[in-house]
């Protein structure tokens, strides 16, 4: 469910919503949600000084009843 929330939030702020990929993995440290977006949208998702990314993480953590980490993957590297 949290991955769907992240996907919905991110698809509504990017210019290329069809390129958004969100995958969720469970590990010993909690849940890991990996987000990939079009390289042109990476700045929009991260935001100035990381404010947008931190806001997304805050919303997800508030909804979760366990430890959740949201990673925004830079596919340009």
UniProtKB/TrEMBL annotation:
Q: Where in the cell is it found?
A: Cytoplasm
Query: Keyword Metal-binding: yes or no?
Result: no
* Main location per the UniProt record: cytoplasm
GO cellular component terms attached to this protein's record: cytoplasm
Quick check: keyword RNA-binding in the entry?
A: yes
| The organism's place on the tree of life at top rank | Bacteria
Keyword annotations from UniProtKB, A to Z: Cytoplasm, RNA-binding
Transmembrane residue ranges: none
Instruction: Write one Gene Ontology MF term.
Output: RNA binding
InterPro entries to which the protein is assigned, alphabetical? KH_dom-like_a/b, KH_sf_prok-type, KhpA
Q: What does this protein do?
A: A probable RNA-binding protein.
Similarity annotation: Belongs to the KhpA RNA-binding protein family.
This protein is called RNA-binding protein KhpA
Which lineage is the organism of this entry classified under, starting from the top rank?
Answer: Bacteria, Bacillati, Actinomycetota, Actinomycetes, Bifidobacteriales
């Amino acid at each position: 469910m949290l991955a769907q929330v992240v996907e919905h939030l991110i698809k509504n702020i990017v210019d290329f919503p069809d390129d958004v990929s969100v995958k969720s993995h469970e590990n010993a440290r909690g849940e890991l949600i990996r987000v990939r977006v079009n390289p042109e949208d990476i700045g929009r998702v991260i935001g100035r000084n990381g404010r947008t990314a931190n806001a997304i993480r805050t919303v997800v953590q508030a909804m979760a009843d366990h430890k959740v980490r949201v990673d925004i993957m830079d596919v340009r590297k």
